[in-house]
Amino acid sequence: MTQPRSVVYTVTDVAASKAVFTALFGEPDVDQPYYVGYGDGGQHVGITPSRDGVTGPIPYWPVDDAAATVAALTAAGATVVQEPQDVGGMLVAVVHDPDGGAIGISQAL
User: Fold this and answer.
1) What is the four-CA torsion angle of 49, 54, 60, 61, rounded to 10 degrees?
2) Which of 40, 78, 79, 93, CA to CA, is 20 to 30 A from 69?
3) Residue range 14-30, pLDDT digits in tens
4) Looking at the chain, which runs of residues are DSSP E strands?
């Protein structure tokens, strides 16, 4: 089984969270109003504004086929929060498990 390669924290105040994460990781690799990202030895940690009231960390699991994975997860009982969408050369999607836990899916394009 692979490990998540990125964790994205959805936050209500990007600037405040950026200060905390910069203290932990140093200056970000990506610094945009919609996304702040930090790379660290093959792992990536990001901050993005909360959408749909979802806050907290979302681990993103790398897969070969995001659409097929989302379909399999929904067939197993997950609820789609975000359909696969291209974000800078990567397809990402988010589903909730039956208890509301967020599961991120990422597919390199």
Assistant:
1) -160
2) 40
3) 999 999 999 999 999 99
4) 6-11, 30-32, 35-40, 43-49, 56-62, 79-86, 90-96, 102-108
